[in-house]
Every structure is written in structure tokens, then in C-alpha cells.
Amino acid sequence: MKGEGKKAGKVYLVGSGPGDPELLTIKARRIIDGADVILYDQLCGKEIINSLPERAELISVGKFASKHTVPQKDINRLLIEKARDGKVVVRLKGGDPYLFGRGGEEAEEVAAAGIPVEVVPGITSAIAVPAYVGIPVTHRDYASSVTFVTGHEGAHKEEEILEWDVLSQLSGTLVILMGVGGLSRNIDRLLSHGKDPSTPVAIIENGTRKDQRVVTGTLGDIVEVAHREGVKPPAIIVIGDVVRLYGIIPPNPI
């Protein structure tokens, strides 16, 4: 009827996985292809970005390493505004939206605005990237636990949230996401709290993608090795005895 407000659309928080387009879930593909508006991260990877439907309004919001093209508050605002226009809006993220992807914050904001919101989980790079190169994050002979942490938070916040003294004593696998920029600082923290310098480390750059590469070392030398090899984000850092399986378990073909 005349005068009625426009019916609100819906927001989907969609995980695109670690970058290999074949790891995009069937549900994610369906939701993406039916979207009116897609706000996407560069971390999704070129192949997935190039597959986005031309009919949709495509908005790059950056989020690559520390280079954020669009501030988070503006992303939240865009999600709400586009949905209030009656659009089906996809917030497309690398990996999984709720693992260090700020998806929880976006879901809160959208829900508070009275907009329907749904999450479509993605395959997290924290597990898939090591798996692709032949490193299982758990193994009965090497690690019965795995801990995921972010290496990308500011130093003050990190001191409050991450208990490096505890992390250094864990015998399982430690996986650090977004940790290249703070590699030296975080390795120093583990070593200063007693982590064995001979602990194996692998850094996997552009995991599951055609330009994937692996750099290995130990806690004692990985900073020097990474600097020498020019390691750049996006990369996953795996610390623990499971790294000894690299070169023993065959990697996935790329």
C-alpha cells in the first residue's frame, strides 16, 4: 500500500574459505550468486573475487593485512543501509566469519538495527592451510591439542588478552593468524616465557592458492629466515612438533 515502508532485506556473513575456490561451500556459492550487494575482503583471493556475479553491486572493503580500505564502522553502516533498501547483502570474508574475522561484531550491529542476519561458516585457513602442505594440526604422536591466536592485535590489547606465559607452556600446536607483521615480537614473547628455541615452525604464505609457498625453521631462527625469504601476508604460522611432518606427508596438488 502507498505510504508503507520498504521491506528490509537480509545480511549474510559468508566465509569464502582460505582461497582455493573449490573450498567454497555449496551454500556459500548459492548465497553469493543470489546477492544484490557484496562487500568483500581482498583476503578472499583473486579467483573467488573474479567469480562474483556481475549483476551484483560489488564493494571492496579491503581488510588486507593492516591496509583497511574501509573502516569497520563504515562497513557496518553499509550493511545496514543496503539491507534497509530491501537488498540481499553478502559480507564476504576470507576463511570463517567468526574466527578473527570480526563477523561477530557485524552480526551484533546488524541485529541491533533490526535487520535479519545469517552466518554461512567457511573453511578456516587455520586448519586448511597447514593441511594443504602436509601438516595436520593434531596428530596422536605429536599433538593432542591445537590453539588458535591472532598475531594482529595492537601491542597493548594483546598484552591484556593473550597470556603468552600460558601459551609458551602448551605442548600442542599453536597456530597464529595474521602474525607476519608481529612475528618478531610474538616469537620473542614465547621464547622469553620458556618455549624451547628448537621447536619447529612453518610459515605458509598464500596457502591453498597457486602462489602458495612454505618457509620452515625453529623458534630460534624463524624470524631471521622469514626476513631473508621476504615472507609477506597473508600467511599462517604453525608452531609445534606437527611441523616435523612437513615433507613426510605429501602436500595437496595446487
TrEMBL record:
<comment type="similarity">
    <text>Belongs to the precorrin methyltransferase family.</text>
</comment>
<keyword id="KW-0489">Methyltransferase</keyword>
<dbReference type="InterPro" id="IPR035996">
    <property type="entry name" value="4pyrrol_Methylase_sf"/>
</dbReference>
<dbReference type="InterPro" id="IPR006366">
    <property type="entry name" value="CobA/CysG_C"/>
</dbReference>
<comment type="subunit">
    <text>Homodimer.</text>
</comment>
<dbReference type="GO" id="GO:0032259">
    <property type="term" value="P:methylation"/>
</dbReference>
<keyword id="KW-0808">Transferase</keyword>
<dbReference type="InterPro" id="IPR014777">
    <property type="entry name" value="4pyrrole_Mease_sub1"/>
</dbReference>
<dbReference type="InterPro" id="IPR050161">
    <property type="entry name" value="Siro_Cobalamin_biosynth"/>
</dbReference>
<dbReference type="InterPro" id="IPR003043">
    <property type="entry name" value="Uropor_MeTrfase_CS"/>
</dbReference>
<feature type="domain" description="Tetrapyrrole methylase">
    <location>
        <begin position="10"/>
        <end position="222"/>
    </location>
</feature>
<dbReference type="GO" id="GO:0019354">
    <property type="term" value="P:siroheme biosynthetic process"/>
</dbReference>
<keyword id="KW-0949">S-adenosyl-L-methionine</keyword>
<dbReference type="Pfam" id="PF00590">
    <property type="entry name" value="TP_methylase"/>
</dbReference>
<keyword id="KW-0627">Porphyrin biosynthesis</keyword>
<dbReference type="GO" id="GO:0016829">
    <property type="term" value="F:lyase activity"/>
</dbReference>
<dbReference type="InterPro" id="IPR014776">
    <property type="entry name" value="4pyrrole_Mease_sub2"/>
</dbReference>
<keyword id="KW-0456">Lyase</keyword>
<protein>
    <recommendedName>
        <fullName>uroporphyrinogen-III C-methyltransferase</fullName>
        <ecNumber>2.1.1.107</ecNumber>
    </recommendedName>
</protein>
<dbReference type="InterPro" id="IPR000878">
    <property type="entry name" value="4pyrrol_Mease"/>
</dbReference>
<dbReference type="GO" id="GO:0004851">
    <property type="term" value="F:uroporphyrin-III C-methyltransferase activity"/>
</dbReference>
